[in-house]
Each structure stands twice: as C-alpha cells, then as structure tokens.
Amino acid sequence: MPHNPRMPAPSPDAELMALIDRIGRRDEAALRQLYDRTAPRLMGLAMRVVRQREWAEDVLQESFLTVWRVAGDYRASLSPPLAWLGLIVRSRALDLLRRRAADRIRLTQEFDEQMADQIEADTPGPAENADASEQAWALHQCLSQLEGRQREVVSLAYLRDMSHGELARQLELPLGTVKSWIRRGLEKLRVCMGRFA
Predict the structure, then answer these.
(1) What are the angstrom distances between the C-alpha of 156 and each of 106, 150, 173, 175?
(2) Residue 31: CB atoms within 10 Å
(3) What does residue 96 show for φ and ψ, rounded to 5 degrees?
(4) What CA–CA distance (Å, rounded) separates 41 from 39?
(5) pTM of the predicted model, to two decimals?
(6) For the residues 156-179, what does the mean pLDDT come to?
(7) Phi-psi map region of 74: left, alpha, beta (phi>0 left; psi -120 to 50 alpha)
(8) CA–CA dist 129, 134 (Å, integer)
(9) Shortest CA distance to 48 belongs to which of 57, 37, 56?
(10) How far apart are CA 115 and CA 118, in angstroms?
C-alpha cells in the first residue's frame, strides 16, 4: 500500500498515550519503551527536586514502578501523558525528601537522647558530688595516719595502679616488705574509713 503523504505522523502525546495504555494491560515492552523515551526528561525533573543524582535515580525507579501499578487509571482527557508522568516523578521526589527529613529528625533525636543518657550517667549530681567530696576528705585523713613509707607504698599502689613488683623495683625495697606494708596499710585504712561511714 503506498504511503499517503497527507496522513500526519502520530503526535508524541499519542505515542506516549498508546504506551501507557499498553502498560495498563501489563505490557512490559511498552514500559521499557516509555522509559527509553521519557527517562532523560523525567530524570532532569527529579534532579531539580532532590538535587542528588543517586536520589534522583531512586525517584525515577519508584516513579516507573508507580506507572506500572497505575497506568490502567490514566485518563488522557485529564492530563497530557508527559504532565502525568511529571506529576508522578514530582510526587515520588517529594516523598523521598520527606522520608529523608524524617530520618534525619529521628537520627538527631536518637543522638540527642543517647548524649543526654551518657551525660546523665557520667555527670554526678549534687548528692553524688557531696558524697565523693566527703569520701575524699575521709581518705585523706586516714592516709595521713599511715607512716611515711607505708603511705607512699599504698598511694602508689592504688593511685598509680602499680603492681607489687613495680613498687619494689621503684622504691628499691624487698617484695615481701612492699606486700606487708600494703596489707597492713589497707587494714588500717579500712578501720579508719569505717569510722567516717
């Protein structure tokens, strides 16, 4: 049949409407064709809304999944096909931005709560500060009652967390002497601290 030059080529809208109609009947090839024809323009729209390529790609994928689900509901009389597709992309892009904002708020709240818990756990209150101050004063009083070298050995053992062997080497004392002084010193401290309890 010869080609009739007076017959106009189908309009771009007509082609897109035909593809959407086929997608509504679950034609996967039509979905691929629609994607090939419209993805670059729709990607540009998604980029303008979300401003990040990775997010825009997610938006585009979600948009075509939506097209697959709702193509049967498309009515050409209500909206040109490209405007309809653009509305879907814009809607999915705004959904993504809302989810991201909600995630940021949730993460910020979780971080704030963790920090508050940590600060509360690490920071003693006035009662704990008073108790600690009283205990420190009592310990100082009790340590001052130990003889000079014995006080030095006990202080180094507990304040600097030194082992008996390290103390013996540093103070040039026999190991047995160090152990004995620490044992007797701790007993005196226990009795003395008991009086302040």
Answers:
(1) 48, 10, 14, 14
(2) 19
(3) -60, -45
(4) 6
(5) 0.54
(6) 80
(7) beta
(8) 9
(9) 56
(10) 5
The confidence score (pLDDT) of residue 119 equals 60
- What are 153's two structure tokens? 């050995």
One-letter amino acid for residue 74 of the chain: Y
CB neighbourhood size of 197 (10 A): 6
Q: For the chain, what's the residue count?
A: 197
At 10, phi and psi to the nearest 5? -60, 140
Token reading at 146: 């130990």
Region of poorest pLDDT, from 13-22, 36-45, 140-149: 140-149
Distance CA(141)–CA(188), nearest Å, equals: 12
List the Cα angle 92/94/97 in 5-degree steps: 110
Please list, residue by residue across 90-121, b when 16 or more beta carbons sit within 10 angstroms of its beta carbon and e when fewer do.
bebbeebeeeeeeeeeeeeeeeeeeeeeeeee
